[in-house]
């Protein structure tokens, strides 16, 4: 029996990883085609191995990608296909606007020996990866009616990649790319401030590239502070441990900082302990600026509705709050102001709310 969606209206998603949102069937197809050994040869078997049913640490979660990424990374055809199929997936979830993120370097880094006669194989550059992903997203947008933009990830453990990431953000601004991100293992001490990352984010500020940072998921409130003060982050990915520093949280709330919340992910990565009140409840109660996102649905064996069901059934979230947070997500998107306004108006109309021009006031 199909479960009734927790929120059966148009949604906005701002925090989801392309390499964590691949169809298992596609992984198996390219594993066979490229001669890559995978840990299972059926969809169910693959999901049981790479999927999570109980909490792990963030580093243990990150290892999951090593099981299946060799089937995709370095393959032109696969990279474009996963981008296209991602848009189809979001259309089925009722998403009308999504920002999907990925590391161009990780997708380019094939550990599989290329097959000389197959033109979809070979040494890929990060630049070519961004081009292929943008193509797939644009074709998906055309075919499925979902507006899609992308965010390029720097990786905490590879600061030497970051200057190239920001240059790719600049180059592909007219082809879906809207922002830069810093992802990876937050437990690497001081990684926010590695010179390569600082250089990239300084260049992003100078060049008008939008900025988000994974911070305060496994890391402390100090990591959030570094993201905001040193990297000039405009949004915070996760941000749960911001609440450990009341002064910082108060300041960010006053500045209308947007928190990209991923509820189901926070449980499975151990970022939230189930015997405590979830940070998203505090965000709701304080009418803070946040969104609800799926993060890595392949590994979490989830859809975006999993996250909505979790906070509706376990935390008492209402349809009115779902409307408010999605409008906040639209307002906090990295779209140009005119497109952002169009998106907000689309949601307000779908939600039965008056147009902004005639509204008495805008919800925060």
Structural write-up:
- This protein is an alpha/beta fold and 364 residues long.
- The chain has one domain (11-349): TIM Barrel (Alpha-Beta Barrel), CATH 3.20.20.
- The chain is 46% helix and 13% strand.
- It has helices at residues 24-34, 43-50, 58-63, 65-68, 76-92, 104-108, 126-144, 162-171, 195-207, 221-229, 246-254, 263-268, 279-285, 297-300, 304-315, 319-331, 337-350, and strands at 11-17, 95-102, 147-155, 177-183, 210-215, 235-238, 258-261, 289-292.
- The relative contact order is 0.14.
- Mean pLDDT is 94; it is low at 110-120 and 359-364.
- One of its GO terms (molecular function) is adenosine deaminase activity.
- It is a peripheral membrane protein.
- One of its GO terms (cellular component) is external side of plasma membrane.
- Interacts with DPP4 (via extracellular domain). Interacts with PLG (via Kringle 4 domain); the interaction stimulates PLG activation when in complex with DPP4.
What features would you highlight for this structure?
single chain, 364 residues, alpha/beta, TIM Barrel, eight-stranded parallel β-sheet, 17 helices, 8 strands, disordered C terminus
Topology, number of strands? 8
Write the CATH homologous superfamily: Metal-dependent hydrolases
What's the architecture, going by CATH? Alpha-Beta Barrel
| Major sheet description | 8 strands, parallel
**Order of SSEs:** EHHHHHEHHEHEHEHEHEHHEHHHH
Terminal CA distance reads 37 Å
SS class:
alpha/beta
The Rg value, from CA coordinates, equals 19 Å
| Low-pLDDT runs | 110-120, 359-364
**Overall tally of structural domains:** 1
The percentage of residues in β strands lies in 5-15%
Mean pLDDT over all positions: 94
Annotation field: number of helices? 17
**Spatial order of the strands in the main sheet?**
1-2-3-4-5-6-7-8
Overall 3D geometry? globular
CATH class: Alpha Beta
Helix share, percent: 40-55%
Within the CATH hierarchy, at the fold level, what is the topology?
TIM Barrel
């Amino acid at each position: 029996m199909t479960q009734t969606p927790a929120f059966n209206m148009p949604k906005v998603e701002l925090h989801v990883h392309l390499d964590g949102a691949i169809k298992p069937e596609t992984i198996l197809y390219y594993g066979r085609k490229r001669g890559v050994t995978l840990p299972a040869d059926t969809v169910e078997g693959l999901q049981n191995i790479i999927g999570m049913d109980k909490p792990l640490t963030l580093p243990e979660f990150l290892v999951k990608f090593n099981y299946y990424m060799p089937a995709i990374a370095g393959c032109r055809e696969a990279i474009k296909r996963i981008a296209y199929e991602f848009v189809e997936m979001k259309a089925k979830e009722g998403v009308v606007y999504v920002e999907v993120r990925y590391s161009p370097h990780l997708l380019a880094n094939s550990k599989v020996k290329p097959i000389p006669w197959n033109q979809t194989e070979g040494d890929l550059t990060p630049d070519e990866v961004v081009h292929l992903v943008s193509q797939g997203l644009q074709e998906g947008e055309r075919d499925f009616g979902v507006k899609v933009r992308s965010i390029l990830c720097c990786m905490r453990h590879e600061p030497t990649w970051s200057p190239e990431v920001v240059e790719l953000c600049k180059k592909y601004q007219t082809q879906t790319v809207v922002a830069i991100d810093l992802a990876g293992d937050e437990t690497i001490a001081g990684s926010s401030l590695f010179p390569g990352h600082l250089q990239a984010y300084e260049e992003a500020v100078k060049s008008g590239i939008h900025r988000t940072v994974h911070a305060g998921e496994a890391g402390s409130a100090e990591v959030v502070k570094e993201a905001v003060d040193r990297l000039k982050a405009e949004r915070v990915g996760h941000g749960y441990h911001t609440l450990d520093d009341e002064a910082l949280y108060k300041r960010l709330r006053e500045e209308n900082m947007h928190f990209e919340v991923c509820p189901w992910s926070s449980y499975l990565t151990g970022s939230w302990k189930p015997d405590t009140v979830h940070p998203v409840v505090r965000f709701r109660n304080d009418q803070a600026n946040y969104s609800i996102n799926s993060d890595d649905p392949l590994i979490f064996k989830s859809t975006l509705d999993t996250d909505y069901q979790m906070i509706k059934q376990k935390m008492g979230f209402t349809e009115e709050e779902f409307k408010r947070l999605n409008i906040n997500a639209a307002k906090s998107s990295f779209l140009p102001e005119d497109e952002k306004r169009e998106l907000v108006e689309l949601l307000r109309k779908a939600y039965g709310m008056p147009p902004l021009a005639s509204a008495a006031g805008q919800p925060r």
